[in-house]
Design a protein that fits this description.
This protein is an alpha/beta fold. It contains 5 helices and 5 strands.
Length: about 120
């Protein structure tokens, strides 16, 4: 039996952390953190990252930069969650290295399916 993937969830809103963690259920190990610093501290333990860009209390341009910083440190599947609905924001996140982007609010089941697809590409 293969081991469960570890998902690093970086999100500052506890109710979203709870929703994401519950959605992943018992099929995944989840590490939940609430700040950008904690994301980077826990990155080595993760097989994939789900990061809500509100963990980075800077301007949007700096938040987008965080994506490329994560990918530069460890090339793992990265799902970015953003509350900004503009396609230009999603495109910018994808260009900076996000493997997928979802806007908040999101469907938790869709999040899990997308993450499973991302993880299946690296196995």
């Amino acid at each position: 039996m293969s081991r469960k993937p570890t998902i690093l969830i970086g999100e500052d809103k506890q109710f979203l952390v709870d929703i994401i963690k519950e959605s992943f259920g018992s099929g995944f190990n989840c590490i939940c953190v609430r700040t950008e610093e904690k994301v980077f501290e826990n990155l080595d333990s993760a097989d994939a990252v789900v990061v809500g860009l509100d963990v980075c209390p800077r301007e949007q341009e700096e938040r987008v930069k965080m994506i490329s910083e994560i990918k530069a440190r460890k090339d793992i599947p990265l799902m970015a969650l953003t509350s900004l609905q503009y396609s230009s924001v999603r495109i910018g996140l994808l260009r900076k290295g996000a493997d997928d982007v979802m806007t908040k609010p999101f469907n938790p089941e869709e999040l899990v399916i997308r993450m499973e697809k991302l993880l299946s590409r690296i196995r």
